[in-house]
Write a structure and sequence with these properties.
- The protein is an all-alpha fold and 509 residues long.
- The chain has 2 domains: 261 residues, no CATH class; 232 residues, no CATH class.
- It is built from 21 helices and no strands.
- Helix 8 runs parallel beside helix 11, helix 9 runs antiparallel to helix 14 and helix 14 runs antiparallel to helix 19.
- The longest helix has 38 residues.
Length: 509
């Protein structure tokens, strides 16, 4: 009986390996490229013991990246890339899991497969095998990148496997979200929210200087493993059972629901609509309000938590060498800590902007938009309602966070970068709806990649300037010209999206 539950898993795995090939290859190859590029860059820049000591002194105790555990080139290199690599591999793992589970289920492909000789647990098993395997290969590739640069093999392997386990952990969380959420959009939101939560946990653990807290965030596992600094193999005794538990929970939840069902059921609407429910904006609000409230509430709660902890954080950072350049520019280590955290949450908020805009594409692909546009509603008003909520929702989230931490002006000044990414998504939806989702997420990933390459000095300032986040980077004086330029480009792209959508056909899946 159990064998029948996994029937055709191998065949499904072959099908899944053909899908999303680019994302799967990135999950395997990017860790190697990051490791080797960072190692080569550091060895080229930090050529003398004095340069290495100065670099460590200037960066030791970073609230985002943590402590440099080993005073060597290898220790500095793994310190510099471990968080960036973990975040990128986690995001790619989430996308792959959701695409091969909840998205296939929404679009009816999974139901067609299950109509044949396919076991009920085969789709989830094939998706997890694919993503777990890609993460482990990526971890081995990362270790090979460090080893190719001449770093010790044991530390390289520990760093690679710890990063791979982080990706596997978030894949397990995404598998649970795919069972709990009623649609792929909310499943992604829950999964990305988990990444944001554990990122904030990581920052707080680093600021507190408590290494034990890093064990409870997958993004801190590589730091907890201490590669090149007396490897801590205790991590694997904790991480592997944690991933196994998440996987088991996903299987249990999957086995107790019907095809197309979920544990977070969407609430049925009223038999008769309210008097106010008579415009495209009202419809957009009805569709988007759940996700908007979730994101705004999350940012407000994070702001309140950080504000309550700031006296303790200021006390912990007092007298430390926490980013001395940024601390001097912003008037203290506490202000530097807030600037870094606000910048990170600005980047995370860009994901909300993309998801809110892509909700229009979801309605179109499910043919619901066509029913609305068959009436007296114009295409411009229909799309404008969703875009208005996407832009105002992101503004409300970052504004509340800034108000709670007492840094409202600085947080609002970063908002145009989020709007620019959302407007690019809107433009892509207007001109090429099928490409809107992959290209938008790809551009966000490319922006994060440019920042990473810039920070390891693999690219210069002019290349990093292609990313909208470069203009709101901590320590950069945000002036009127770049803000006005980003707002102007956003307005132009939104206008073009409305024009293009008005003149193209409705495109369903």
């Amino acid at each position: 009986m159990k064998q029948r539950e996994y029937a055709a898993t191998g065949k499904l795995l072959k099908i899944y390996l053909r899908n999303n090939k680019v994302i799967t290859l990135l999950l395997i190859l990017l860790p190697f490229l990051f490791a080797y590029a960072a190692a080569a860059s550091n060895m080229a820049v930090l050529q003398t013991p004095e340069q290495l000591s100065t670099y460590i002194a200037e960066n030791q105790g970073n609230a985002l990246l943590g402590t440099i555990a080993a005073n060597t080139i290898a220790g500095v290199t793994v310190w510099r890339i471990r968080l960036s690599t973990a975040i990128i591999t986690s995001i790619l793992s989430i996308v792959l899991i959701i695409n091969n589970t909840r998205v296939d289920e929404e679009q009816g492909r999974l139901e067609l497969l299950r109509a044949g000789a396919v076991g009920p647990k085969a789709p989830l098993t094939a998706a997890l095998v694919k993503v777990f395997g890609a993460n482990l290969l990526g971890g081995v590739a990362m270790a090979a990148g460090f080893a190719a640069a001449g770093f010790p093999a044991p530390g390289s392997l520990v760093a690679g496997l710890a990063t791979a386990l982080c990706g596997c952990c978030f894949a397990g969380m995404a598998a649970i979200a795919a069972q709990v959420a009623p649609n792929a959009r909310l499943a992604r939101g829950l999964s990305f929210g988990a990444v944001a939560f554990f990122l904030v946990w990581q920052v707080l653990a680093n600021a507190a200087g408590n290494e034990k807290l890093l064990l409870w965030t997958p993004l801190g596992w590589c730091a907890y493993a201490r590669p090149y600094a007396g490897e801590n193999f205790l991590l694997f005794a904790f991480a592997v059972p944690a991933i196994a538990l998440l996987t088991a929970m996903a299987y249990v939840l999957s086995g107790r629901r019907d095809m197309g069902g979920s544990y977070m059921r969407e609430r049925s609407g009223r038999v008769h609509g309210r008097k106010s429910f008579k415009s495209p904006l009202a419809l957009a609000w009805r569709l988007q309000r759940g996700m908007l409230f979730l994101w705004v509430a999350a940012y407000a709660v994070m702001g309140l938590i950080i504000a309550s902890l700031m006296p303790s954080i200021n006390k912990m950072l007092e007298g430390t060498a926490f980013l001395p350049g940024l601390s001097a520019a912003l008037g203290g280590a506490g202000n530097a800590f807030l600037a870094i955290l606000a910048y990170i949450l600005t980047q995370v908020l860009a994901a909300y902007g993309i998801m809110a805009v892509l909700r229009i594409r979801e309605e179109e692909s499910m043919t619901r938009a066509e029913l609305v546009l068959a009436g007296a509603t114009t295409r411009t008003r229909y799309v404008a309602g969703h875009l208005l909520i996407a832009f105002t929702g992101s503004a409300a989230a970052i504004a509340l966070f800034g108000y709670c931490i007492g840094d409202f002006t600085s947080c609002i000044a970063r908002l145009p970068a989020v709007w620019l990414i959302a407007s690019v998504t809107a433009f892509l939806y207007g001109i090429a709806p099928r490409a809107a989702a992959p290209v938008s997420w790809g551009l966000l990933g490319a922006s994060l990649l440019l920042e990473f390459l810039w920070e390891i000095k693999a690219i210069g300032n002019h290349v990093f300037a292609l990313s909208p986040f470069s203009w709101v980077y901590p320590g950069v004086v945000v002036s009127f010209p770049p803000i006005f330029t980003m707002l102007l480009v956003s307005a132009v792209l939104v206008g073009l999206s409305l024009v293009c959508f008005s003149h193209r056909d409705i495109v369903a899946e």
